[in-house]
Fold this sequence. Notes:
alpha+beta, Dipeptide-binding Protein, domain 3, ABC transporter substrate-binding protein, peptide transmembrane transporter activity
Amino acid sequence: MRRTAIAALALGALVVTGCAGDPDNGGDPTSAGPIVVAIPGDIDNFDPHTNQQIIFEYSIRELVFSSLVSFDVDLNLEPDLATYEVNEDATEFTFELNPDAVFHDGTPVNADAVIESLERAGSAEDSIWSGRLADVASYEAPDEDTVVITLNSPDASFLSGLASIAIMAPSSFDDATSTPVGSGPFTFTSWAANTEIVLDRFADYYGDAGASEQIVLRPTTDEQVALNNLYSGDIDIIASVTSSAAEQVDTGRAQLVEPASSNRLSLIEYNSSGVLSDPLVRQALAHALDKEAIRDIAYGGGGSPAWSPLPENSWAFSEQEGYEYDLDRARELLDEAGVEDLSFTLDILSGYPEAEQIARVWQSSLAEIGVTLTPNVTEMSVWLDAYVSRDYDAIWNAFNVSVDPHSYFDIIMNPHLNDDYQNQEVSDLVAESIATPDEAERAEIYAQLQKILVDELPVMVVQSTPIYSVAATDVEDYSVNPLSWPILRDAVATN
Length: 495
């Protein structure tokens, strides 16, 4: 089965972990009571090796589990369970574990347990991390606090990629979907379907204690209901809201929380072996995409139009000219491709009005050049089946590009390269990009990749998207990182 790569806004991206800072509650972590958080959907799988929903990542993965390394709120790499050393060609990674780390079941986080967890992540059925760990030649434990990972070939992205992989208690492997056991700052206490998930602060956590004694997660799909519940005091934080909801926030009764920048890209992924197989046709469709109108209508003027598949704050970003909104040029390209009466479907995940607005704006422009776009809004299971099987003409998606640019190529592009968009030059450059330790040389390779992908458009970037969260006025030490992850472990409600 192909490794699933889901990245649909608040429901599904496979991205690197964020990490929290120190709690600031007068130096006494026991002084802060529960904090209640509205999340945009329920979670029914608590196995961090098989669940890649964004809501799972920030509300369970980040709080219940630890990794060998992690990222702070500004996405700087730092030790988590271990300090680390990397050899010159990025083939050997040595980790010295924190001897104070224990799992929630009381067992130690030692080298054997870490290796068992990584081996499970690399080989378990339906693991989302098997590809990332596929080039591991060996795991070794020189002593109980040391793990050495050796790769078959150099991989400059490997350390960053480990930040996403949770270290699980081996005792929990069989029951991980319902009873997760990690070593993070909060323990999993209970789940009531579509009602709430309760996490309690872990007294024996090896790092800085969680700021609140308890975090209660409440699935709330209706944003207006969530806002009303926040105003009434029933909840403290709304983890994420759309641009339209952000415009409605009463800043006298709540605070709008945004990251300093956004790594989230709105995408149109094409099936390059189907009706849209000709790059000239995809270029024509790009010329018919009115990105300024989309930014205003779908994103309330937030974010910025983009063509490169890497965010502007990435060290590997290379500005791409892209395609100006030009319907005459779009017609010329369709004529050059010999295409008439083109019709295609755009699959959209339900619950994302911005995607439907993108479709409407694009649909109107395409109609002027004789192209018929039919939006197909579906529930998650249907959307996911279509995505994994490539049973679509075009599909809307969104992806949070991690600190290392390889995350985009690993998660979004590689499935295409192995299926509908088989481009040996791109595949070779992707392989070269991670085999090159020098960052400046890697940036040159990524510049080539960005140009090719914008020229051929197997995936079309729409824009970087704004990220919004809402908190009650009495919530302190709460932030959101550029991957759109709320940093819940630091947040406290003072009243």
